[in-house]
Amino acid sequence: MAKTLILNQADLRDCVGLDTDSLAVVENAFRLLATAAVAMPPILRLDVPEHNGEVDVKTAYLPGVAHFAIKVSPGFFDNPKLGLPSLNGLMMLFSAQTGLADALLLDNGYLTAVRTAAAGAIAAKWLAREDAKVVAILGAGEQARLQLQALRLVREVREVRIWARDSAKAQAMAAELDDARAVDSVDAALDSADIAITTTPSREPLIQPQHLRPGLHITAMGSDAEHKNEIAPAVLAQVDAYVADRLSQTRVLGELNHAIAAGLVHAEDDFAELGQVIAGQRPGRTGPEQITLCDLTGTGAQDTAIASLAYQRAVAAGKGLSFDS
Question: Pfam families in the record, alphabetically (predicted)?
């Protein structure tokens, strides 16, 4: 009988966090997207409008990686009114050789949060200036905290400005950090910032052309659905280097989607993907004065990478419940 390992969120938190290994596997996933015959179908999305819900299904097979993951990721945004978290989900991990289900990862969205933060750090590693020290964070939820934590693994952060629509949340996050302060406007957050990270579900642009300055890098990770928009379309027309996690996705889900709809970018325009920059196939930042933008919509390749790392570590640590399926 085939054995399947069940891992709950506590098991997975014990095994995987934001460290050099998690960044490395996500970076490798991006590299493989550019250099290998990765199989990654379009995102399957189910909307549940009566309950302000959406469900995304992502997957990818990465050559050379022993497993592939299929992730089911619900987001039901009225849940806090019921005392429930907005985000949930699980991952199923299959052998890439036999197709057998080796593990069920009941992570409640934890692994997605980790791989998303890791992707933000990788974007900054390759696109932000080496001497970038002042960081603007838009949003004050879990991902805002994780993005900052991951960024500190690749850049020496000296000053953090935090803005959120709920000022109390921005103040609470700033109070947790020695080098951070809450600000009352996006203008104040972006003033003289070297790196800006957007982590909100905003439907209206937050970063505008007037916020751009030489040397700025922007990591935008909140726009993962057609209706979400954190970056004004005119910004994409003015940056020196726009980089997508997956161009086919950002054309329909990311910030690029809105620039195309506004007629400021052509739908057929070619842009670099982060994996191509990592692999040396396309340029990213080529000078300290350039303005760069990385548009992250989330990929199944990242999910396979982080789920595989979690499984390897869990098996080594003897975590989880194994049963005959």
Answer: OCD_Mu_crystall (PF02423)
